[in-house]
Structures are given as structure tokens and as C-alpha cells.
Amino acid sequence: MKKVINSVEDVVRDALNGLAAAHPELSVDVVGKVITRAGGPTPGKVGLISGGGSGHEPLHGGFVGLGMLDAACPGEVFTSPVPDQMAQATRDVNSGAGVLHIVKNYTGDVLNFKMAAELADDDGIEVATVVVNDDVAVEDSLYTAGRRGTGATVFVEKIAGALAEQKAPLKAVTDVANEVNERSRSFGIALTACTTPAAGKPGFDLPADEVELGVGIHGEPGRHRVKLQTSSELAGVALSAINDDMPLAGQDLLVMVNGLGGTPLIELYIAYQDVASHIAALGGRITRQLVGNYITSLDMAGFTVTVCKLTNDLTTLWDAPVRTPALRWGV
Amino acid sequence: MKKVINSVEDVVRDALNGLAAAHPELSVDVVGKVITRAGGPTPGKVGLISGGGSGHEPLHGGFVGLGMLDAACPGEVFTSPVPDQMAQATRDVNSGAGVLHIVKNYTGDVLNFKMAAELADDDGIEVATVVVNDDVAVEDSLYTAGRRGTGATVFVEKIAGALAEQKAPLKAVTDVANEVNERSRSFGIALTACTTPAAGKPGFDLPADEVELGVGIHGEPGRHRVKLQTSSELAGVALSAINDDMPLAGQDLLVMVNGLGGTPLIELYIAYQDVASHIAALGGRITRQLVGNYITSLDMAGFTVTVCKLTNDLTTLWDAPVRTPALRWGV
After folding, report:
1. What confidence tens digit (pLDDT) does each residue in A306-329 have?
2. Residue in A209, A212, A161 with CA at minimum distance from that of residue A187
């Protein structure tokens, strides 16, 4: 295993120290593993919290800031954070307007966020929860009951974050978060497996001439393996799966082509060209787009496609100012 | 070779199509391979052009926009663009105030930009050139006479771009570009070799337990190979090499920890923690920083460190608004 680390045990701690040093606009509790905005909670604003296992950077810590999250709780690599982290974060960002937990649909995350919400309830803090489950590839996996939460998490955090920044009430912020999730679908393709520091070797065996279609962001198995195909063919597989589940014809779409951590940007732009062609052929209209590494899987090579059916209101919220380490515009 | 591509021949064309589709704020001539701002040249403003082989994305196309470049000329992968590209770009961005060519110090790039400048001179366009040569690792390599140009290119493009945006004259923009180059040093470390699409296999053999110290952004050999070390040890090697060449004690510093394309962000933050520690131990003060993938080497795993000694004026120009696909703040 070749990684830029100091020790397997210190990966998350060291990365949080680096995040804190690189981003003085964040407040990073390295011991408690909670990342918040440096300025503390915004009076009258619903607090937005997300979290999950590390290894998906910039998700979630890179999305803390104006117009997006108030706090992120990173667990160990590919391991849910513990309820105390989310409970502390909930107290930290609460300004009296309530707190929304944005949870990717993995069993551990769902359970631990639920316990944190109960702890917050004991403290008299109103908590709502949205569970993101956008991955059309499989219905169940080792990690989750029902669909996995993947790329739509970025859209939910951005759009709900924009509405919260306008001081909308907790119910409205929760409703828009659910709306974005319901209107979003994702599909992932792996060219290589990822290697967790603890395992020290790739999470699964993928022959040198095969790709895994429908892979999850922890290297969970996908629908099936095929021989390596062209970018256009791979994009076609992803878009067919998404379109079968949620027809795209006639829709205004927000589209993300996301790298899984080990894929260079030049390949992501090639994939985006082909994704855009397939969407046009399906009758969809891309009106907003994002190409880059936003929700990764350590060093995995490959990409995911996420599509959200926009409305005028969702487009306005997507365009609203955001200032975070990983997503920034309008300010 | 596993890559998200359609064919070896079409890599750059397809990536440019994707860039164009993803960024309507750019004007991309896919056939002529010139990327400019969609709005055309800015009246009264010096035009800034850079270019070089593809495979280093987001460099240079991702840095075209307000406050940075006016045009980028991508060559084939790891291959200099041809003089006609830079000549066309020079005509495209010329508004009468002159044009600055920002050239990384590789023999082909230097030669071809020189020919383009002569063509522009024939057209009556005043052209100045800055050659970036910040890599302290080696004096000569297969690709260059003298030091290689690497990470400082990002700093030069940002800072000279900010001054040009203020409508400063060509001489002042050229002077600040040279100043940034002279005050910057870089050092790179590879964990793996990169694979060009044309070669189809890694550019050099690196044993599973070794790293290459002082590697170039095309996989050029470095100073030597050593057994895999910790992030802190690797950062120490990079900072020692830089500090030996340009002492950092007492200086205000802009620091970039840059991923080479195949390194996940979590590892870059670990490296940044250790880079920051070593700089503090050397008596330097980091006042600005950048962590991410800015000048890559296809799918190479590893990172580079670039350090620039700031002045108050350079800091102000660094902080000035920038709106490009890969670097964005203040607007």
C-alpha cells in the first residue's frame, strides 16, 4: 500500500489537522471530530449537519461554509461517526431555529444520526432528518437497507443550505432537502478498487481489463462486471440506468460528473462530453453542471453520474452564493 | 491501461468538448485547440496566454477567466502546442495593450512560444514572455534545459492575471510575473508513475515499496528513489530541498500542496499538515495556501509542494477576485 500518510491510526486526525491549517474559515475540533464554521452558529438560521465515514473528501468537511453546511462529522475511514459527534455538532450549530441532519442511507449512519437526534431532543433542540438514497444501481447492499446515498448528497447540502441561509424555517428546509433527493439519481462505475489504510490492499479484485458497473462509494459491488468499454459506452450504461428509473425527457437537469479520487480531470471532462451527449439523446436539457472530485472513494479510479430534475426554485437555490473549501461562487 | 477515454487519438479533442460543454463562460476552439474567455478580449487589458502539453489539468484551460488567463493552448498529452495555436490565441486576446506569454521551461514549449511571438510581431502585436522554472529537484532533464517549470505557473498566472485585470501596462505585468517566478520554488514526489494514453503503460518502473523524490510533472526522473516514507518524512525532504535553495526563515509564504492526479484529497490534507509543520520549524510563516489538484500529471499518485515568498503587493494580487473553472474567489 502506497499512501501519503503517517500511520494507519492517524489518517483522520492528520487530515483534520491539515484541513484546519488550510482553512482558517473553519473551526475544526480534531479530538471531537466536528468541523463547523469559524464564526459559530448564525442567529435565526436552521443549522445543517452532515457526516459519515471519511475517505469521501471533500464531502462533508469541504462543504462547510456560507450557503451550505454548518457542521460536518467525519468518522474513521468508511466508518460511521458516533452519535456523540453529531450530538455535539447539533448543540454547536443550534441557534434556536432547529437543526437538519443530512444522512446518507447507510445502516450505521442512519442509526447513529437517529441516536444523536434523540440526544438533541433531550436537550430541547428540534431536529429533522433527511435520508439521501439516490443510487439506482442496487436496492440493497452490505452497507445499507434500500438505496445507497451518493452524489445527490452534494445537491441536497447545496440547495437546502441556500434555503437555510435565507432563514427559512426548519420544515421548509427539510422539505426542499427531501425534494432534491426525490428528484435525483446516481450511478457509479469503477475502473479500480480502492484501498483503505486499515486493509492495506484493494477492497475487491478487478481484472486488468474489466470495470465494475454500479459500484458504491465504498467499493460495494455493483450490478455486474464487463470488459473495459469506451467513455461513451460507460456513460450510456450510467444514463440508461438513471433514465429507466427516472425519465429525463423534457426535463431541465443539474448534472454532476464526479471523480472517485484516482481519476484525472482530463478523463472526467471526456466522460462529461459523453454524459451530455447521452442526455441530449434522451431528450433532457442540462442547465447546470459540475465536473470534478466532490464525493470520492479514496484512490478509486472511476466516476459517478448524478442527475437532478430542476425546477425554477431549485435552480435559484443552486445558483445562490456559496463559500466553502470545495464549492464556491457568487461571493 | 484503464482510462475513461474513447480512443487514444481523441483524448484531447474529447476533453476539450467536455470542457466547452461544462463551462459556457469559456469559448473553446476544439479544432484549433485554443481556449479563451467567452466575452472576447477586454479592451485596454494586457492579454495573458499560457499553454503546454495536456495531461496537467486543470492547468491551463481551467485557469482561463476573470483575474487570470485570457487564453490557454493545450497540446497533445505531454506534447508542446504548436506555434500556430499560440499565434492564434495571441491575435484572439490582443486588445492593443500587448500580450504576455507564460511558458513553462520545457524545450519544446519555449521554442514554440518563441516562434509564436515572432509571428505575432509580424502582425504588429507586442509580446513579452516569462519562462517559469521553479523546480529545485534537478538542473537539467530530458525535457528541459535548466530548471523545469511546475507549480509556480499557477502562482504566476494568478498574480500577473490580477495585475493585468487592473489594466496595468505590459511591462508591469511582465515584471510581476518574473518576480513571482523568482520568489517561488517547487519539489515533487511520486508514489506511482503515470500512464500516457499513447504509451499504454506506466512511464517508468517504480517498485511497490519505493517513491521517486524530485519527480517532474511528466514523470521525469527525480533526484533519487527511496523506500516509502511517512508523509512527514516526505514533506521534510521537499521542504529541505526548497529551503536549501531559497531560505524560508522570516518570510511570509504562499504555499501550495498539489496532487498529481491520482492522490485523494484526504492524503493531500495530511501532506499539508506536515508541510506546514516543517515550514514552521524552518521559521517561515504561511499566510496564504492552496490544497488540491492544480497541476497534475495524468493519473500519477504523489504530490508537489510550491512555496512563494510573498510581499504585501503580491498578497494583495493573490487575494484579488478570480473566476475560473478551477480557482474562484471574491466574485
Report:
1. 999 999 999 999 999 999 999 999
2. A212
- For domain A10-183, the CATH superfamily is Dihydroxyacetone kinase; domain 1 (3.40.50.10440)
Work out whether the CA dihedral A197, A203, A206, A211 comes out positive or negative: negative
- Per the listing, cell 478580449 goes with B41
Using CB atoms, pick whichever of B4, B261, B293 lies closest to residue A270: B4
% helix, strand, coil for chain A, step of 5: 35, 25, 40
pLDDT at B223: 84
Does the annotation mark B23 as catalytic? no
What does the alpha-carbon distance between residue A157 and residue A295 come to, in Å, rounded to a whole number?
Answer: 12
Q: Where in chain B is the domain with CATH 3.30.1180.20?
A: 184-321
From the CA atom positions of chain A, what is the Rg in Å?
Answer: 19
Helix (H, G, I), strand (E, B) or coil at A40: coil
Torsion angle of the four alpha carbons B84, B89, B91, B95, in this order, in degrees rounded to the nearest 10: -170
Domain with CATH 3.40.50.10440 in chain B: 10-183
With contact defined as beta carbons under 8 Å apart, do A185 and A246 qualify?
yes
* Chain B residues lying within 8 Å of A291, measured CB to CB: 18, 22
Show residues of chain B in contact with A54, CB under 8 Å: 266
Which of helix, strand or coil describes residue B285? strand
CB contact under 8 A, A22 and B303: no
Catalytic annotation, pick one of B23, B56, B101, B278: B56
Question: For residue B249, what is its C-alpha cell?
Answer: 526563515
A61, A69 Cβ separation under 8 angstroms = no
Q: What are phi and psi of B36, to 5 degrees?
A: -130, 170
Among residues B60, B101, B218, B278, which one is catalytic?
B218
Number of H helices, E strands in chain A: 8, 14
Quick one: DSSP state of residue B104?
E
Please give the Cα distance from A51 to B74 (Å, whole number).
39
**Per CATH, which fold does A184-321 belong to?**
Hypothetical Protein Tm841; Chain: A;domain 3 (3.30.1180)
Locus of grid cell 436537550: A123
Q: CA B315, CA B219: separation in Å to the nearest integer?
A: 32
pLDDT exceeds cutoff 90 at A140? no
Which of A88, A188, A176 is CA-nearest to residue A148?
A: A188
pLDDT score for A214: 95
**Chain B contact set for A262 (CB, 8 A):** 262, 264, 299, 301
Q: Would you say A215 and A282 are in contact if contact means Cβ atoms under 8 Å apart?
A: no
Of A21, A230, A301, the CB nearest to B276: A21
CB-based burial, A305-319: b 16+ in 10 Å, e otherwise: bbbbbbeeebeebbe
What rounded mean pLDDT belongs to chain B?
96
Q: Collapsing DSSP states into helix, strand and coil, what is residue B71?
A: strand
Tell me if residue A278 is catalytic.
no
